[in-house]
């Protein structure tokens, strides 16, 4: 049976007053984040919005690296989004991490590669995963720590990118411990010297602090 033609007038259509602003914010978020799969990302966006959770939205558009020929998936901006979404708990379930990862349209194989670097099971210690994510963004320990500072800092963009010494020491020790070529004594010596250096800075470590010391 054919569906009868139905005429609607303006009085019959109810548009929630908050809808225009919701769609405006959604559009701006999509432009900033530039998701590879707009439908998957939209599902994650509105799911988080309905639950009052941090949204899967970048703070700003990330410009592609000129020397990067292929899409590597994870970026500093996306790792920062994941940190905002998952760092509320010290440990997250693997399923929760997989969902957030998928909603950011990141490659599943890249997630598996990162997880293989440690003995994660059904639960993942977030800061360890975060450290491995920073490592995936850089080919060196110092590069990884630079990413960590820039993502975690409360300093304005372009500033010193300072983070608490204890946070820096945990991330550095963890990543260095995964590298068999870095002696444990060298790690302890470096962190001890760095701690003395930042005592007068209220135990805050900036990118310049450890970059200069490692070069020396």
Describe this structure in a few short sentences.
By secondary structure, this protein is mainly alpha-helical.
Largest sheet: 2 strands, antiparallel
Major sheet: arrangement of strands: 1-2
**Cα end-to-end separation:** 82 Å
Strand content: under 5%
Quick check: average pLDDT? 90
The number of helical elements comes to 10
Structural class: mainly alpha
* H-E string: HHHEHHEHHEHHEH
**Poorly predicted sequence stretches spanning 5 or more consecutive residues:** none
Rg computed from alpha carbons, rounded to a whole number of angstroms: 22 Å
How many β-strands, per DSSP?
Answer: 4
Shape verdict: elongated
Number of domains: 2
What portion of residues is helical? 55-70%
Descriptive notes:
Helix 2 packs across helix 4, helix 6 (126-137) crosses helix 8 (165-177) and helix 7 (141-152) packs antiparallel against helix 10 (207-215). The chain has two domains: 27-59 and 73-126, no CATH class; 138-216, no CATH class. The strands form two sheets. It has a two-stranded antiparallel sheet. Strands 3-4 form a two-stranded antiparallel ribbon. It is mostly helical and 216 residues long. The protein is elongated. The protein has helices at 19-33, 38-51, 76-86, 94-103, 108-115, 126-137, 141-152, 165-177, 184-198, 207-215, and strands at 91-93, 123-125, 163-164, 204-205. The protein contains ten helices and four strands, in the order H-H-H-E-H-H-E-H-H-E-H-H-E-H.
